[in-house]
Write a structure and sequence with these properties.
Elements lengths: L6 H9 L6 H12 L5 H13 L1 E4 L7 H12 L13 E4 L4 H8 L5 E6 L9 H13 L4 E5 L2 H5 L3 H15 L3 E5 L8 H13 L4 E3 L11 H18 L4 E5 L5 H14 L10 E5 L2 H14 L12
Parallel strand pairs: 1-2, 1-8, 2-3, 3-4, 4-5, 5-6, 6-7, 7-8
């Protein structure tokens, strides 16, 4: 994979990507959605999905107490059953990173912080980089940045690329997830180009959405992004993860995405290091379905905390 040295080179590379067959992508995603996971492996799949969750709270009313409760749940999703795995990460606003790090201690649960003027991405570069640096200095292990969709849609690809490069540098050792906000990119071709642009610029993960717009993650978009990550790995030798976020609330939803991951990128992507769910309500449904597998009967939602 060549080093990108100019916007002309970037445009040529992205322009050389094959177009996306929208009808074909949607048909394949719909077909994969009909596949079911065998009962004998469903418990394993549920535990895998739990381990892939970025447990998220991104509300203006978030408090240190709310974050501490979320971290407790992230560590022990079901305190009555210590065989339930911890989630992958807790995702918060930058000013609450310190509280999350303190609550999690040395546990193997990452702290992710949204940055770069989340969710709009509309701010000066100086403000965006300050946002990132403050989160990293507070202890964030992962940064979820948003691209400037206005710049991308206006064709200022070099600007978007340079911003991601600069944010990646500001992250230091922290992993960078680049949010494309696919619901605003209009076409699957744009999703593919934005995915490649982000990966070329140094993203460790590409992420569908902020969860703050009307259209968030969808199976066809996830399929396009997973194809891009798979092809990028084959071309460059560098593996980039994929994160789906927004509107994923049920175990049934999660299982559909796991099937898409397996059938598109392969079983090597079925790990929290390569695939994540950005979610707040999904975890409780996964826990309910897990207990159903054990007891053979549904449990009440109020058996689990609302955090």
């Amino acid at each position: 994979m060549p080093t990108i040295e100019s916007e002309t080179q970037l445009r040529a590379l992205l322009g050389g990507l094959s177009g996306v067959d929208a009808v074909g992508v949607e048909a394949r995603a719909a077909k994969l959605a009909t596949r079911s996971i065998k009962k004998s492996t469903k418990m394993t799949a549920i535990d895998l999905a739990i381990s892939m969750v970025d447990l998220t709270t991104l509300e203006g009313a978030d408090t240190p107490g709310r974050v501490r409760s979320l971290c407790t749940k992230a560590l022990r999703p079901d305190p009555r059953d210590l065989t339930v795995p911890s989630v992958a990460a807790v995702c918060v606003y930058p000013d609450l990173v310190t509280q999350a790090k303190t609550a999690l201690g040395d546990a193997d649960v990452a702290v992710a912080a949204v940055a770069t003027a989340f969710p709009s991405g509309r701010a000066s570069m100086a403000v965006k980089l300050l946002d990132v640096r403050e989160a990293v200095e507070a202890g964030a292990d992962e940064i979820d940045m948003v691209i400037d969709r206005g710049a991308f849609l206006a064709g200022r690809l070099g600007q978007v690329y340079e911003e991601i490069v600069a944010v990646k540098h500001a992250c230091g050792e922290a992993h960078l997830k680049v949010i494309l906000e696919t619901g605003e990119l209009v076409t699957y071709d744009n999703v593919r180009r934005a995915s490649w642009l982000a990966m070329l610029a140094g993203a460790d993960f590409i992420k569908t959405s902020t969860g703050k717009v009307s259209v968030n993650a969808t199976p066809p978009v996830a399929l396009v992004m997973l194809e891009a990550a798979r092809d990028f790995a084959e071309t460059s030798g560098r593996v980039v993860g994929v994160k789906v976020a927004g509107g994923i609330r049920t175990t049934k939803d999660a299982m559909k995405y796991l099937v898409i991951v397996n059938e598109t990128a392969g079983s090597a992507w079925l790990t929290p290091q390569r695939f994540r769910f950005g979610a707040s309500s999904l975890l409780n449904d996964l826990l309910m379905q897990r207990l159903k597998q054990q007891r053979g009967a549904y449990v009440r939602p109020d058996e689990f905390s609302g955090d």
